[in-house]
Amino acid sequence: MAQTRPLKEEIDGHVVIVEDEIESRKVMTLALSKKGYHVEAFGNGADAIKYIHSQTSIIDLVITDLRMPGVDGLTVLKETKQADQDMAVLLVTGYASVENAVEAMKLGADDYLTKPIDLFEFRARVHKLIKHKSLNREVDLLHKRLDKRFGFEQIIGKSRQMEQLFEMVRAVAATNANVLITGESGTGKELIANAIHQNSPKKDQRFLPINCAAIPSDILESELFGHERGAFTGAITRKIGKFEIATNGTIFLDEIGDMSVDLQVKLLRVLEQKEFMRVGGTETIRIGSRFVFATNCNLERAIEEGKFREDLYYRINVVSLKIPPLRERREDIAELVSHFVSEFATEHKKQVTDVAPDVMQALMSYGWPGNVRELRNLIENVIIFSKEDRITKDLLPTHIISRSDKNRRVAVPFGMTMSELEREAIYQTLDAVGGNKTRAAEVLEVGLRTLQRKLKDYESDGQDEASDKDDDED
Ligand SMILES: Nc1ncnc2c1ncn2[C@@H]1O[C@H](COP(=O)(O)OP(=O)(O)OP(=O)(O)O)[C@@H](O)[C@H]1O
Ligand SMILES: [Mg+2]
């Protein structure tokens, strides 16, 4: 029969118990699970070690008996610390081996208890160890957050569109609503997803990004839901999935348009019922996470093509945030440039502080098909190669300069026809952008299809010419 696990708002701890004596194992497990901890209990050290290595990131505490047949508690201790130095270990031992316990403390155990166990004392020690661990994790998180700087301050944009977007982000962050973020590649979807989390009531819980396009669809299911031991060939231990790791945090499903239709059905169920089961499992797990989704593909079109489920679309699209491409908010470019200049000058220990006016003009008028990511990469590149304190035009790649020199006069050989000129422009632009047709179309301000059609025409012209030539030679 399926059991329902309570939502753990207060005590969020994942504990492993290793104890060969059945009674003692049961008593400890019950004592902790009653308090809301998630407990995995093992009767021998070998199985426990396998589990600890496979689930390192989510285990808070390992409680192990010292004396066990086969793999003993000291080995469990060593292996645990090897898997993660910060994972807490509580040793449980009979009176006879107190000396060993002291020895074990020297080897890195965090605490020890002697049998028979006083349950009150047991819970108190467990609570202390886990609290200590979560404090450490919080400090870690704070550092990471500072490092990655996910606050709004680090999202640059003064344009009207971005101001509006920030306002919406602030409003939606305060709620628990599902959010769909759309926008071309490199516009800052992940940055916004982070800002939503950092400004939400869940900010002290986990933010868990999952890129649906990067994980093969058969693996994605057990990544998200977890699986039970023996659920399929190769499932040698139970695996806790991402949903379970972040039951109260924010789950960011990136590239949602790439999720298989089968999995979409299962995801819809999670969103509707707020619970799920591990693959091959019977235990129902409640989930209180907030979901943020992102995609750079057109989901409406995907629905028409039968690649995306309409019912799921309405579920995830409760609030939708559209990030405009950079070319539609050129007034943000200057600020982004100076932001990235100072970021990379510091990182690469360069003295660059300034951008020449003609460089800025070139950057302002370029199309940025790769959006902010492309701009950021370009600035980093330029900074690395710069020798002076100012970024000058010679450091810019040709495709960016040529686009901006609108008033420049090009020497056209007399006698060239309009269509020959056009063809030359297309080929030279393609050369300048390394053959990337999407980018060439952007620079030339024509549609990609038009460009492709013209190239096809040129190709067939070329073939005709070649066969004409053959005829001439005959
Ligand atoms: N407004 C912004 N201010 C500062 N940095 C930004 C801004 N927008 C994007 N960036 C930076 O540009 C890069 C790309 O952003 P991000 O990864 O969030 O884009 P994305 O929309 O998720 O792209 P993709 O669809 O390719 O995954 C990151 O390094 C990010 O920090
Ligand atoms: Mg992204």
CATH architecture name of the largest domain: 3-Layer(aba) Sandwich
Contiguous helical run count: 19
- CATH-assigned homologous superfamily of the largest domain: P-loop containing nucleotide triphosphate hydrolases
- Structurally, the number of domains stands at 4
For this entry, give a set of tags.
Rossmann fold; 5-stranded parallel beta sheet; Helicase, Ruva Protein, domain 3; binds magnesium ion; 474 residues; binds adenosine-5'-triphosphate; elongated; alpha/beta; disordered N terminus; 17 strands; 4 domains; disordered C terminus
Protein described:
- The protein folds into four domains: 7-145, Rossmann fold (3-Layer(aba) Sandwich), CATH 3.40.50; 149-324, Rossmann fold (3-Layer(aba) Sandwich), CATH 3.40.50.300; 327-404, Helicase, Ruva Protein, domain 3, CATH 1.10.8; 418-473, Homeodomain-like (Arc Repressor Mutant, subunit A).
- 49% of the residues lie in helices and 14% in strands.
- It has 19 helices and 17 strands.
- The chain has helices at 22-33, 45-54, 73-83, 98-106, 119-148, 160-173, 189-198, 217-225, 242-245, 261-273, 299-304, 310-316, 333-347, 357-365, 371-385, 398-404, 418-432, 437-444, 448-473; strands spanning 4-5, 14-18, 38-42, 61-65, 88-93, 111-114, 179-182, 207-211, 226-227, 239-240, 250-254, 275-277, 284-286, 290-295, 319-322, 354-355, 390-391.
- Helix 3 links the parallel strand 4 (61-65) and strand 5 (88-93).
- Helix 14 crosses helix 16, helix 17 crosses helix 18 and helix 18 (437-444) packs across helix 19 (448-473).
- The protein is elongated and about 100 Å long.
- The structure holds adenosine-5'-triphosphate and magnesium ion (MG).
- Adenosine-5'-triphosphate (ATP) is lined by residues 155-157, 183, 185-191, 296, 372-373, 376.
- Magnesium ion binds at residues 189-190, 254.
